[in-house]
Every structure is written in structure tokens, then in C-alpha cells.
Write a structure and sequence with these properties.
The chain is of the alpha/beta class and 677 residues long. The protein is 43% helix and 21% strand. The strands form 6 sheets. Strands 21, 22, 23, 24, 25, 26, 27 and 28 form an 8-stranded mixed sheet that branches. Strands 1, 2, 3, 8, 9, 17 and 18 form a 7-stranded mixed sheet that branches. A hairpin with a 7-residue loop joins strand 19 and strand 20.
């Protein structure tokens, strides 16, 4: 137990938590990302840049135009209406990968009554007309980015499941040969990969300015969207998300390049902006707020021409479906129902304002350092602080870390771990408090066992529970000292066998000690057959003289009963003399570093010893000093017997014989002398 100090325990706990942090232990990882969500919520919404507008196919639009998906001619009208306002770029969070669902209906409406044309041929004509309307609209816009998605994207280290027979993998999508800072692309293995693609039909795709994927990557464990991949490797080339592809058009095709590190992607450089990503190329989204934080324009207002063109002019417009029944809703830290189109708006705004959340690889080292620093501070502090003070100190450290780490998050965009440092505080505090409790209980038991040799069980418990009341370094106070001795013990020991002598002495000392403890006295020591005790120690007792006198009277009475029992066993009777004195004495731990003993010392102790010896002269059993008789008061009956000068003292002492218990009727006939101060 001596090796288990608070500081060592704190460091051991920090080491365990540090290993778990390096390994991103699954259960704590999920708690940590939830804690990062709390940081965002605590920060609250922030204002978007104002350069991004969402045109939503909302409930009003569906009610007015009809169920989704709309005919491509209607979508072409929507795109024309947006383009007329001259936006910087238009991102379309929709893909046109299937033949129009309205081809059959349109065929029936378009059939001439007198012309015999096969249905399939007429359907092809109608479908071609619808697709052509959308193609023409895309070409007129010249600034539209179509979305597409990969059927499956693979995180780093996961092999391909594609069979190679998917014709859709040959559909046209925009991929890039991005400028890299390493010739061999060492970090590419850590990026996300994809095989099969679902993109818009070739004529439609080719009419767009470019394309971008809209795949999302929910976090493992809770399905929240917190990160989006900023590049995906496809057939040896790089695909960009709809957000960055739209930004490329808005900023007139800036240079985009990748930085790789030994462990993966370091960053994606977009024009003059460095987009910090994790090693797998994903960006931690700095959400502007809950759903509909960005300005939304209803698609039906664009179709009706009632929208103010100024709302779309020189803006980056993202078209998406937000209608309740058909929308692509996601779960994010701010909202459980979050339109998928608004994810792209958040990424675009992050790049425009360059206020990214950064989680570099070295942030793990910072988290581990924080865990160790907190553990060491608590280990040192809790070594001195106990109870409420220790709890307050631990709470102060926790609040200080919360405030400091939140400030780093707000001003530097670094989401430091909350779970590991706070867990370090909770575990360190708990373990140290338990250690202190176990140590204190062990010390109390040890003290209780030691005190049980000197005190009654109740007094031993009291002292062990309130050790602050015990002064062991030496203290001078008023106490009452007691000495007793067996008269003629040498001749008695010659009459008995050694075994019988030991048994006799043990019974006698046991009975006397029991009475000392019964009156809450402290057994100082046995000196052969002599007994030394003290009242008023280790804890102060206002009535120590009364207790000592009554205990001595009971000892003489108990010895009479013992003698009757010993007579039947053929043992000799014992006769004792007792001395009592009250006055200032020094109490404390006396001795050397190798051996200490709780005892009393001083001139008044010596006087008690001398008074015990004077019983032989006066033929008495109990002789007490004047100070003891005064302090005991009416609790005892006594008589003055002499004024003596004991050995070692120059001044004579007035001595009294204690005759009995003043609370009893016996001895009332004795004259109690008037004691003169």
C-alpha cells in the first residue's frame, strides 16, 4: 500500500487512458464524438457567409407541380429560371440516371389520333424531347454542376467488392488528375475508394459544366454525419464532391492539388485555401447551425417567376429536394432531420470563410498530454486536500479544462477531446479518494489496535475516529495519575508454581485493567506486578479525578472478590496499595525513533508513585493527594491522615485516605476533613 501514492495512481490511470486514446477505443470514441457535438451546440449557430442559397423542392413545390420526380422539362424550366438570375454556379443534388418516369404518360398524351406509330417509338420520341429540353437548359446555363453517387465507397484498407461487369462504371463522371506533392502518391492507400458509379445519362451528363458526387459517410456507431470525403479515388483518378465541384465553377476553375503525408492525405489545396482533412481525406464539417440555417428559396417560386432575382444573383445556388415525403434527410449534431442538400452548402461555406474544424494527427498527442497533465495536477493536489476541498479542487480542474478547451475550439477550430481528460479527472479523483479512505481505515485499525492496549474499546474507537484530538508530540495538561502495587509479591511468588503464578497475575491484572477501561482511563504500563494508569489522556476529561478515584475504590472491592475465589483454589490472598495524584503532567509519545510509548511524565507523576508506597506506613489501601480529593469532591468519602514530605520533594504534601464511594451510604459516618487551600 505504501507504493500506491495518489500521484502514482494518477499516472497509472493516465497511462491506461493514453493507450486507449491512441487506439481510439470504440466505446470511448463514440462518447468523444458526441462530446464534440456538444461543443458545436454550446457554441450555437453562426451566420453563413451569405454567398450560398438553396433552391428546395419543398412541400409547397410538390403540392403545386406534382409528385417528385418531376418531368425533365419542368426541371429544365427550373434551371432556366435560376440561370436567368445569373448565379455564380448551380449545384444539382439530383441525378438523372434513369429514363424519365413520365415517358409513358407523355406518350398517351402525344399520340395523334390518325397516325399509326408504335408506342415504343413514340415513347422514345417523347423521352428524347424531355431529355433534350434538360440538355438545352444545361448548355444555356454553362455553370451547372450535376450530382452523381458511387454505389459503394470503401474506407481505407477495405478491398473492392466490384465484379468488373457493371456497365454503369463507364458512365461519364468528372475525375481529376490533381497535382500532388509526392510522385508516388504514398498516402493514396489511406483515401476512400469507389468502383461502380450511378451518374446521369450520357447526353445529360455531357451537357453539364462538370459533375460532383454527393456520397456521405455516416460515423460508425451512431450514423451521424460529421465528416464528408473531399476526394475519392476512382479508377486511379480523383473525384471531387458536389460542393467543391460547384465551387470550382463559381471561382472559374482554380488549381486544386493534394498534399499527402506518410499516413495518408494531409490536405486538399483549393485555389489559395488549404482545406484540412483527416488522413482519409474527410473534412470535419463546421456546421453553421441546425436545418434551414441557410436561406431557402422554394422551387415553385422560381417556376412561377415570383422569386426576386437578387436572391440568386452572384450566389452559389444548390438545388435539392427538401419535401417531407421524398427528401434526403440526414442526422447531424444540430438536427436529427437535416436536408442532405444543406450538407453541401455547409462545406461550400466552410471553404469560402476558411473557418475549418481541424483534427490533425498530432491532436492525439495533445489529448494524451492533457490527460497526463490533469492526472499529475490532481495527484499532487489531492495528496493534501481531502473531503469537500478535494472535490472542489477536482471540479475546478474540470471546469478550467472545459473552458480552456472550448476557447481553443472557438478560436482555433481544434476540437480537443472532452471524454478522456474529464474521465481522467473522475477516475483519478475516485481512485485517490478510495485510496485515502482505505489508507485512513487501515491507519484507524492500526491505531485502534495500538490504543486497545491502553484504552477501553469505546475510547479507542473515539480516538481513532477523531485523531485530530490526539496530541502525540507532548502536551502539558491537568491529569490524574494512578499507581498500584501488590504487597509482599516476592513471598507470594515463592509459594506458587510458575504456571500458577502467571495465571494468578494475569487474572489480577486483567480485572484491574478492566476497571481502568470501565472508567475510561488509559493504561500506561505494567511494571512487574505494579500497574500505572492515567485519567485525562489521551483525550481531555473534565472529571478525570472523580473517575480515577471511583475506579480505584472498585479495584479494592473487586480484589476482595478475587481473593475469595483464589482461596478455594489454595492460592494466597493479595493485598494492594494505591496512590493517586492530580496536577499538571506532560503527556505524549515518548521514546526513540525505534520505540515509542504513550505515557505521562512530571513531578506529579512521581508524587503519585510515592503516595502508593506510603500505604505500607499507614496500613491503608488508597492514599490520594489533596488535589485529587478536591477535584473528586462529593463523589468520594475520604479522611486526612497526615502531612508528609515524600522523597524528591522539598515541600510537604497533605495526604488523604479514600474510604469509599460518596454516592453510597457506607462510610457516611466517617468525618470528611475540611481541606484548606
Amino acid at each position: 500500500m505504501r507504493l500506491l501514492t495518489p500521484l502514482r495512481l494518477a499516472i497509472a490511470l493516465a497511462l491506461v487512458l493514453g493507450v486507449l486514446r491512441f487506439q481510439d477505443w470504440r466505446y470511448l470514441y463514440l462518447s468523444d464524438v458526441r462530446a464534440m457535438d456538444y461543443r458545436l451546440i454550446q457554441r450555437g449557430p453562426i451566420d453563413p457567409s451569405g454567398h450560398v442559397v438553396i433552391v428546395g423542392v419543398d412541400d409547397d413545390s410538390v403540392d403545386s407541380v406534382g409528385r417528385w420526380p418531376w418531368p425533365r422539362t419542368v426541371f429544365a424550366q427550373l434551371l432556366d429560371g435560376i440561370s436567368a438570375a445569373q448565379p455564380l454556379a448551380v449545384g444539382v443534388d439530383v441525378t438523372f440516371s434513369e429514363p424519365s418516369a413520365f415517358a409513358e404518360t407523355a406518350t398517351r398524351r402525344a399520340r395523334p389520333p390518325t397516325v399509326d406509330v408504335p408506342d415504343w417509338e413514340l415513347a422514345q420520341r417523347v423521352l428524347a424531347a424531355q431529355d433534350q429540353a434538360l440538355v438545352d437548359s444545361l448548355q444555356r446555363s454553362g455553370r451547372t454542376v450535376l450530382g452523381y453517387f458511387f454505389d459503394e465507397i470503401r474506407p481505407p484498407g477495405v478491398g473492392s467488392s466490384a465484379t468488373g461487369d457493371d456497365d454503369e462504371s463507364t458512365l461519364p463522371i468528372a475525375t481529376y488528375d490533381l497535382v500532388r506533392n509526392t510522385a508516388d502518391g504514398a498516402g493514396e492507400r489511406e483515401a476512400w475508394h469507389a468502383d461502380s458509379v450511378r451518374a446521369s445519362l450520357p447526353p445529360i451528363a455531357q451537357a453539364a459544366r462538370t459533375m460532383g458526387y454527393f456520397n456521405v459517410t455516416p460515423d460508425a456507431g451512431d450514423g451521424f454525419i460529421r465528416r464528408l470525403p473531399m476526394m475519392i479515388v476512382h479508377e486511379g483518378r480523383y473525384a471531387l464532391p458536389l460542393s467543391l465541384a460547384t465551387l470550382q465553377v463559381a471561382l472559374d476553375d482554380p488549381l486544386t492539388r493534394l498534399s499527402f503525408a506518410e499516413h495518408g492525405v494531409a490536405a486538399l489545396h483549393f485555389d489559395q485555401t488549404r482545406i484540412p482533412t483527416a488522413e482519409d481525406g474527410r473534412l470535419l464539417i463546421n456546421f453553421r447551425g441546425p436545418a434551414y440555417t441557410f436561406p431557402h428559396v422554394s422551387a415553385v417560386d422560381v417556376l412561377d417567376g415570383t422569386v426576386d432575382p437578387a436572391q440568386l444573383a452572384n450566389k452559389i445556388v444548390v438545388i435539392g429536394v427538401t419535401a417531407t415525403a421524398v427528401a434526403d434527410f440526414r442526422v447531424t449534431p444540430f438536427s436529427e432531420v437535416f436536408p442532405g442538400v444543406e450538407l453541401h452548402a455547409n462545406v461550400i461555406d466552410n471553404v469560402l470563410q476558411s473557418d475549418f474544424l481541424v483534427q490533425p494527427r498530432w491532436i492525439v498527442v495533445v489529448d494524451v498530454f492533457s490527460v497526463f497533465a490533469i492526472a499529475i495536477v490532481l495527484g499532487i493536489g489531492l495528496r493534501r486536500l481531502r473531503g469537500v476541498a478535494g472535490l472542489a479542487f477536482a471540479a475546478f480542474v474540470g471546469v478550467a479544462y472545459l473552458v480552456g478547451s472550448q476557447a481553443v475550439f472557438l478560436f482555433q477550430g481544434l476540437p480537443l477531446s472532452l471524454v478522456y481528460p474529464l474521465l481522467s479527472i473522475v477516475l483519478t479523483y475516485t481512485v485517490v479518494v478510495v485510496l485515502q479512505y482505505v489508507t485512513e481505515e487501515r491507519e484507524k485499525r492500526k491505531m485502534r489496535r495500538a490504543l486497545a492496549l491502553y484504552l477501553s474499546p469505546s475510547m479507542a474507537d473515539l480516538v481513532s475516529e477523531q485523531p485530530e484530538r490526539l496530541v502525540l508530540g507532548g502536551e502539558k495538561r491537568d491529569m490524574t495519575c494512578f499507581f498500584s502495587d501488590i504487597r509482599g509479591f516476592t513471598s507470594i511468588s515463592e509459594q506458587l508454581a510458575p504456571e500458577e503464578l502467571v495465571e494468578l497475575l494475569n487474572e489480577y491484572l486483567g480485572a484491574m485493567t478492566e476497571l481502568i477501561f470501565e472508567y475510561d482511563g488509559m493504561l500506561d504500563k505494567y511494571i512487574g506486578d505494579a500497574v500505572m494508569a492515567v485519567w485525562g489522556a489521551p483525550l481531555e476529561q473534565p472529571d478525570h479525578a472523580r473517575r480515577a478515584a471511583l475506579a480505584t475504590i472498585e479495584m479494592v472491592r473487586r480484589l476482595d472478590g478475587l481473593n475469595r475465589g483464589w482461596k478455594s483454589r489454595g492460592w494466597p490472598a493479595l493485598d494492594i496499595g494505591c496512590g493517586l495524584n492530580t496536577g499538571p503532567m506532560v503527556f505524549g509519545n515518548m521514546g526513540s525513533e525505534q520505540h515509542l510509548a504513550l505515557t505521562v511524565m512530571g513531578d506529579n507523576v512521581n508524587l503519585a508513585s510515592r503516595l502508593e508506597g506510603t500505604n505500607k506506613t499507614y496500613g491503608t489501601h488508597i492514599i490520594a493527594s489533596e488535589s485529587t480529593v478536591r477535584a473528586a469532591g462529593d463523589a468520594i468519602v475520604s479522611r486526612e491522615i497526615d502531612l508528609v514530605r515524600v522523597k524528591g520533594r522539598s515541600e510537604p504534601a497533605r495526604i488523604y485516605e479514600i474510604l469509599g464511594d460518596g454516592r453510597r451510604r457506607e462510610h457516611r459516618h466517617h468525618r470528611v476533613p475540611q481541606v484548606v487551600a
